[in-house]
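anyone else get weird line breaks when pasting these?? whatever heres mine. first is seq + tokens for prot A
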Amino acid sequence: MTESANSCQAQGLRARKREATRSAITKAARILTAQKGLNGFTIEQLCEEVGVSRRTFFNYFPSKEDAIIGHLLDEFPAGAIADFLAGGSETGVERGPHGLSVTLLQDLYTLTCAMVEELNFTREHFHELLAAMKKEPALMMKVMGGAHEREREFTDLIIQREELPPDDPVAGIAAALFGSCSHRTSQVFFSEENTVPYEHLLRDNLLAAQQLFTFSHLTFEGTP
């Protein structure tokens, strides 16, 4: 095996170990919170449960609350963002009557699916987080804040990709509508009876929204 291959293998192993440690901290934080409440255990006790040092904990998370929320606060995968932004600036990209690229919705779908895959957020993870939030309802505000921040990030990405003015309402509406479809998708995806992959559920919700706006007439007095 070459030196380069050895180096790549070592880096891959370190990355997997880091991810395993991070996931173990989040899992233990959620379970302890569900059992004892947020103030029922210390960071030191959490570290002892996982078998890591306090310093290691703070290498991954700034607080217990962030450890409980885990990957939900992560940034978008860099490669997926680059692909999304490039989709609006490619030579010859087709645009609709208002100047938006016709692949915007498709590319938002691709970006979201890439993020879901990166998160690897399973039904087990969801129920662990739900149990922690039932014990500590205030955590729901942090999750909701993360969702609002995610919508703002989507808005900024759309503005950048489509070269829109910062205050253009189209980007915010697009992000909000897409966020609603994603939220509905997650509700169904994490239900006990669901067996359908996330990307298929999101696709069907987006197609339903597209039909609603394409085939429903909407007129207001005094508007063209």
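and prot B, same format (seq, then tokens)
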Amino acid sequence: MTPPRARTWGRRGHTPVVRVRGRSRRRISVAALCCYKPGEKSRMIYRPRFHHPLKGARKSFAWTDYRDLAVRAHIQLGGPVVLVWNNLNTHLAAGMKQYAAEHDWLTVFQLPSYAPDLNPVEGFWSLLRRGPMANTAFTDADHLTRTLRRGLRHIQLQSPLIEGCLAGTGLSLAPPTPP
């Protein structure tokens, strides 16, 4: 719940300070998919996960959570899904690879090692950090959750923002034409 920092105006000689109460042991993770199809509105599908502060409990998404997100996307979009993923260890898990191999509606491509500039979802996180979550001291996990959901919903309803995240990568949906 430590707030993201952004630049702001302040009186000369007086640095603006955002007071934050003690750290919380609660943790929230979010996974998102950018959905692009030529001739249709771009979409974003996301899923938050609320982690419990139990000793030994998982503090991030498991490969089964990503599998479930891909299944939801398949159901919502009503067609085959092509996932282009970064090299997060849960994306590379043997269970996920086996699941993709067993289902013909799911195709997975891996981005090169450490290539955030090719990942459109990084644009979402940037929009969230610079927008509704910037310079905000969250009072509790519920305040953080509400702000996060409101920000993601705003992006989700703005198809041009989603398309802008793809344009920011320099990638396109149309294959290059041969010379």
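btw re prot B: The longest strand covers residues 27-35. Strands lie at 27-35, 43-51, 81-85, 106-110.
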